[in-house]
Each structure stands twice: as structure tokens, then as C-alpha cells.
Amino acid sequence: MGLSSRTFLLAVLILGLVTIFSSSSSSSFVVDAQPNDLEVKVNRLQAKAAKNKGIIDLDSNAFDEVLSKPRNYSMVVLFTAISPEFKCTPCLHFDPEYKLVATGWSKLAGKSKIFFGVIDFKAGQSTFQKFGMNSAPAVLFFPVVDSTSDPPKHERYDFSKSGLQAEPFANWVNSKAGTQFKVQRPFDYVALGVRVLGVLLVLGSVAFIYTKAGKVSSSKHFWCAISLFTIFIMISGHMWNQIRNPPYTVQGRDGRPGFIAQGFQNQFGLETQIVAVLYAFLTGSVISLITVAPRIDNATTQRFVVWASIALFTLMFSVLIQLFRIKNPGYPFTLLFK
């Protein structure tokens, strides 16, 4: 019995030592697996961002996954509602600006330090409710979390203070993440063409006035043209552009440029120029009916000018009404276009 007892005690001791070493080895594996799992997670996020120009599309489940603790990266998440049924004009305005920042960041060497996500209301209603989101767009910044015991933290971007432009948004991200990222906008050839055309018109006008200063200064047609040009600029919204500095155009979800902003409280730079041109054509057609047509002696030519002026006025006014309908689908009036 003594030998058996000693054998039994020895067996128990050996089994206990094996259990201790096994537990230690298992714990060591779990501790080592966490960094490996985090590395796999970061690589997966990098792959998703690379496929979508720096943007990671999220739903409620993916949101919880990418923000699970611990994480060695910061996360910027845009809460938006860009589906047509929501009619969220600020969402449509900010969407290309947000993507501009995300695309620029994805080209940097340290791109794994911050990831940019987008969660739409249709795909993440529970997440909207979780954070008390009752309006869109909204942007939250989630900093690095080193431990699973750290309390959740996030900061919200103030659109009312900083606006919808990419530059102040990028500065805000820099201030939160400690980075030095600058927005690089693509070259706007349309804006360059408009500026070049404007400079040529100014130079041509100056040259014309210089050569015929006496006649021009006393010409009623010259001062009428200046007055009309000033009126067109003002009623088309140019002064609003100078105050609010809206984008010239925006890129739609299908990649095509958008030049008409929805809602009567918003507009784009190109939209202002289109409205000014429409008003110019409308005014020109009326002037043609009042001053040009009555001076034509040939009845056939006069009739042609009258009908052409009426047709031009009708067409331009129909386009203007259609523009109002694009800005506000509830606008009740139409003319040529339905």
C-alpha cells in the first residue's frame, strides 16, 4: 500500500505539472494570437480600402467588427443617407469631399494609421440609433484603443462650424490623429477655361474702350450692356457664392459630375453660371422682339426674327423651369419638358 500510495502521489504530481505547463502554453498562445489577429484585421481593412479608393463601406455588423477593441488604428466614420428617398442635400454635397480626403490619405505611406468608413442609414439603422444620430451627415472619429478595458471614445465633427469642404475636415482629422495631411484636389480644367475666357473678354473690352473711348463712354448701348451683365451676375447667385464658397461641381455616385444642387438653399459654382446664361438668353430674346424686329423692313425676315425670338424665349424658360424642378422635385410647373 505504501508503494501504491507513493506511485499514486507521483502520478498526481506529474499530471499537475503537465496541466500547469499546458495552461501556460495555452495562455501564451492566446496572448501571441491577439497581435496576429489584429495584423490580419488591419491587412483586411487595407485591402477593402484599396479596392474602393480609401473608403470602407460598413453596415451595423461590419461597424462593430472594425471598431472592436483593441485596435492600433484610428477610424473615421461618415454617417450618411444619400439614397434619393431621403433627399439629404448636405449628404450629397459632403460625400465627394469626404471621399476626396479618404482617397488622398490612402495614397500615403502610413495609411494603416487611419481608416475611413461610410455607413448609410439603410444599411446601419441600429448603429444610427446606438449613437443617437437623428440627422445626417455626421462624422465620428474613433481614436486608437490599446486595451479591451479602455472606455469607448469618439469625437464628432462640427459641420455648423467648419462647413462641408474637404480642407477644414482634413485639418480636423489631422488635429485628432496627430497627422499632417493636406487635401490635393484634381485640376479643374473647366474652371480654368472659364477664367481664361473671362480674362480674354476683359482684355478685349479694355482694348475696345481704349481705341474708342469717346464714343464708348457716351454710348447708351455700352452702359446698357454693363448694367445687364451686372444684373445677370447678381440675380444668378454670384454674391452668395462669394460668401459661402460652394464647390464648383461635385462628383455623383455614378462618377459623373453634378452641377445642380438640390434644394433652394444650396447651389454650385457652375450652376450659377448656367442660370446667368439662361437669363441672358431670355433677356436677349425679349430685346430682339422689342428693338430688332420692328426695324426690319422685309416682312418675311421680320416674321422669322419674331418666331425665332419667341421660340428661343420659350425654350430657355422651359429649361429654367426644369432646373427649378431638379432643385425641388415638388415644383409644380412645367412648360415644354415634363
Q: Your description of this structure?
A:
- It comes from Modicella reniformis.
- With 338 residues, the chain is of the alpha/beta class.
- It has 2 domains: 45-177, 3-Layer(aba) Sandwich (Glutaredoxin); 219-327.
- Helices cover 59% and strands 9% of the residues.
- It has helices spanning 2-51, 60-66, 89-106, 125-130, 159-162, 166-177, 189-211, 213-217, 220-235, 238-244, 269-292, 299-327, and strands spanning 55-58, 74-80, 114-120, 138-142, 155-156, 250-251, 257-258.
- The protein is elongated.
- The termini are far apart.
List the helices and strands and how they pair.
Layout: H1 2-51, E1 55-58, H2 60-66, E2 74-80, H3 89-106, E3 114-120, H4 125-130, E4 138-142, E5 155-156, H5 159-162, H6 166-177, H7 189-211, H8 213-217, H9 220-235, H10 238-244, E6 250-251, E7 257-258, H11 269-292, H12 299-327
Parallel strand pairs: 1-3, 2-3
Antiparallel strand pairs: 2-4, 4-5, 6-7
Q: Which terms would index this structure?
A:
12 helices; transmembrane helix; Glutaredoxin; two-stranded antiparallel sheet; 338 residues; alpha/beta; 2 domains; single chain
Care to give the gist of this entry?
The chain contains 12 helices and 7 strands. With 338 residues, the protein is of the alpha/beta class. It has 2 domains: 45-177, Glutaredoxin (3-Layer(aba) Sandwich), CATH 3.40.30.10; 219-327.
Task: Classify the secondary structure makeup into a structural class.
Answer: alpha/beta
- Distinct helical segment count: 12
Q: Could you report the average pLDDT, rounded to the nearest whole number?
A: 79
Extract low-pLDDT stretches: 20-33
CATH class group of the largest domain: Alpha Beta
The strand line-up of the biggest sheet is: 1-3-2-4-5
Cα-to-Cα separation, first versus last residue: 105 Å
- CATH H-level name of the largest domain... which superfamily? Glutaredoxin
What is the CATH third-level topology name of the largest domain? Glutaredoxin
Rg result:
33 Å
Portion in strands: 5-15%
SSE pattern: HEHEHEHEEHHHHHHEEHH
Which term fits the overall shape?
elongated
What is the number of E strands? 7
Helical fraction: 55-70%
| Largest sheet data | 5 strands, mixed
Number of domains: 2
The second-level CATH architecture of the largest domain is 3-Layer(aba) Sandwich
Family: Belongs to the OST3/OST6 family.
Protein name: Oligosaccharyl transferase subunit ost3/OST6
InterPro entries: OligosaccharylTrfase_OST3/OST6, Thioredoxin-like_sf
GO molecular function, one term: transferase activity
